Amino acid sequence: MSDFIKKDDLVGFQIASYNDLVEHGLQEVIDERGKIDVDIPGYEFRLGRIRLGEPVVSEAEGDVSRYPFECRLRGFTYSAPIYLQFIERQKKDAICNSDFLLKVKEQGRLEDLTEKAARIYVTPGTYEAVRKWENPELMEVLEVVDFDIKGEQYLNNIKDEVVALAMQINSDLTRRGRGRGSSKVKYKKGERVIKILTENKERKRVAEKYKFEVLSASDIDNPDFLYDSRPIDAIIGKFPVMLRSKRCLLHGMGPEELIKYKEDPEDPGAYFIVNGTERVVIVVEDLAPNRIEVTRGATAGKEIFSAKVFSTRRGFRSRLVVEKKESAKGITLFVSFPGVPKNIPLTTLMKALGLDHGEILELFDDITKPEILSNLELDPLAPKDAFKYIGKRVGSGHAEQYQTLRAHQVLNNFVLPHVGTTEQYNLKKARYLAIMAKKVIELDLGLREPDDKDHYSNKRVRLAGDLLQELFRVGFNTLCRDIKYQLEKQNARNRKVNIAIAIRSKTLTERMEYALGTGNWSGGRAGISQVLDRTNYMSSISQRRRVTSLLSRSFPWFEARDLHATQWGRICPNETPEGQNCGLVKNLAIGAVISEESDDKVIEEYLEKFGVS
Questions:
Q1: What gap in Å lies between CA 186 and CA 461, rounded to an integer?
Q2: With 60 as the cut, is the pLDDT of residue 152 above it?
Q3: Smallest Cα–Cα separation from 531: which of 540, 373, 523?
Q4: 557: left (phi over 0), alpha (psi -120 to 50) or beta
Q5: Domain spans in the chain, listed from the N-terminal domain onward
Q6: How far is CA 100 from CA 77, 117, 216, 217, 396, in A?
Q7: What is the DSSP track for 81-121?
Q8: pLDDT score of 601
Q9: β-bridge pairing 333-336 and 316-324
Q10: Whole-number Cα distances in Å, 79 to 55, 241, 432, 503
Q11: CB-facing half-sphere around the CA of 413: CA atoms within 13 A
Q12: Averaged pLDDT, 535-549
């Protein structure tokens, strides 16, 4: 055991979880979002790479690097700035030759072209060539322009405005003693004059050529051929830094260096400093996501057999239950999931996913097929009618168009979202529902035993990295909504859209600090973070290895509080508090090892290779 303690850090799993969050988890949240949709014609903002800087604190002279000891002493939060790359994309005017337009016509890419281009220009000669194709849809979106004349008109339109603006700036600089006289702005045919002020606010005017780029046939395969892209790195907030992680200034220091910076060499870290207070993120015990659990229960003296799964995808959790119970109409299999006020027949849902009578029967074996056949006989709806039935249930009282839209949203996002969130996954979702139904029928026939939800193979522990990723996802989505509002407000006031001004970094920073400082997490959960217990060394280590269940303390939960055989070697059988928390707050055993999450795609590729579906 002593060898295990020496080789394996007692709280190393928390640090490893945080490091994985910084290296991969934060980028996953950004990739999920992808872009910020703004209601500004011709503008698009995509999200690029995210990274954490060095830990800093805000002083009068700006952001300054400070070590943990000083943060404790002066009441600072030990955090690092979050740098995110925004890619500003603006639509360009498309000037097309006949070869390009011919390829657009042949490949059916007209809609793709009109979505990307601000305007589609052609020369008089090209227009005459296109008119012979007798394609009215293409002819409608073309604008004929003589570009020599347009260049002259463009310069004449902006000339007076640019000269007046240049003279005003020059006058302001002259009054400040930074410039003298008037500036001359030269114009050339086909050039656009723009104003750029450098960071030191000195006068600098740059003439940029305004070129009419003619698109050729080879440009159609380039997805960005009609966009001007400009990357912008901006700080979107500050992220708490875990002590001794890779982002911590103490990482890699030896005992002598730690003493120099007033740190205890024996302190393993794995906690945060928020407003000068040391805070620990407690390990949370939860049911394994995306795993079918079969149980037997009773309501009003009648037995109910059910299979439930917590379908989890990108922080969203949807609970779907397949039940077998008696009903007045004779149907025995029902499904419940978020977005639907009452249970609906299983066969109706499978039909709404696109399967007909015969395809549903093919998903079941000889033992379970009779039960499904009896349900199908009592459910005469066709697939289209079943979809309309779902729409009426989820959009009751609304127009038929809204009911159809709402039905698509519910089936895509609330029914097994971990399988997929588009219509192309409907067949896979139907197969998954069939597997759940077969398990329920087998449980009723006595061919299988109910699952033990207290078995530790049916549970997972959520570490600091996972919990902080969830918190960051909620905070970042709030920030994106605020950025969208600020950008659209700038555009409505006829101002130049500026992403740097639109970012209010305190939105994300304050949410992260509040959650860590109070323990109140997203989803209404409390007690996720606690003040580090410094009574003695053992108490501080014990707290960082504590495992808590989110079950309500006011209910008995006898089975959840009891010791389970599968906890042997994983959970300490003795260390648990008295009172309401007894059995719900536990501690990891000394020899417990927490495995790291791996990518399922590698295993899925092997299964597909061997023909397992």
A1: 68
A2: no
A3: 540
A4: left
A5: 2-84+242-284+461-587, 93-225, 293-417
A6: 57, 14, 5, 4, 49
A7: EEEEEEEEEEE--EEE-HHHHHHHHHHT-HHHHHHH-S-EE
A8: 78
A9: antiparallel
A10: 5, 5, 44, 19
A11: 12
A12: 94
The percentage of the chain sitting over the pLDDT mark of 70, rounded to a whole number, equals 83
Amino acid letter, residue 472: F
Q: Say whether 356 sits in a helix, a strand or coil.
A: coil
Residue identified by tokens 């209910």 is 555
**Weakest mean pLDDT among 41-50, 132-141, 340-349, 459-468:** 132-141
* Domain boundaries 2-84+242-284+461-587, corresponding CATH code: 3.90.1100.10
Query: Would you say 8 and 593 are in contact if contact means Cβ atoms under 8 Å apart?
Result: yes
Rounded CA separation 504/506 (Å): 6
State which CATH number among 3.90.1110.10, 3.40.720.10, 2.60.40.10, 3.40.640.10 fits the domain covering 293-417: 3.90.1110.10
Degrees (nearest 5) of the Cα angle 10, 11, 12?
Answer: 100
Contact 243, 273 (CB under 8 A): yes
Tell me what pLDDT residue 219 has: 64
- SS3 of 534-589: CCCHHHHHHHHCEEEECCCCCCCCHHHHCCCHHHCCCECCCCCCCHHHCCCEEEEC
User: In which residue are the tokens 């009578």 written?
Assistant: 357
Query: At a CB cut-off of 8 Å and minimum separation 6, what does 32 contact?
Result: 314, 473
Q: Report the pLDDT value the prediction gives residue 599, as an integer from 0 to 100.
A: 74
DSSP state of 496: P
d(Cα 318, Cα 310) in Å, to the nearest integer? Answer: 6
Dump strand ranges (E) for 325-479. 333-336, 344-345, 459-462
- DSSP class per residue in 42-83: TEEEEEEEEEE---BEEETTEEE---HHHHHHHT---EEEEE
Q: Give pLDDT, residue 6.
A: 63
Which tokens in the block code for residue 551?
A: 């079950």
> Which of 212, 178, 210, 179 is closest to 194 using CA atoms?
210
How many CB atoms are located within 10 Å of the residue 66 CB?
Answer: 18
pLDDT band at 326 (very low <50, low <70, confident <90, very high): confident
Q: Do domains 2-84+242-284+461-587 and 293-417 have the same CATH topology?
A: no
C-alpha to C-alpha distance for 544 and 282, rounded to whole angstroms: 7
Evaluate if residue 30 carries a pLDDT over 90: yes
pLDDT band at 320 (very low <50, low <70, confident <90, very high): very high
For 121, 144, 554, the CA distances from 124, given in Å and listed in that order, are 10, 6, 80
Quote the tokens at residue 613. Answer: 């579906």
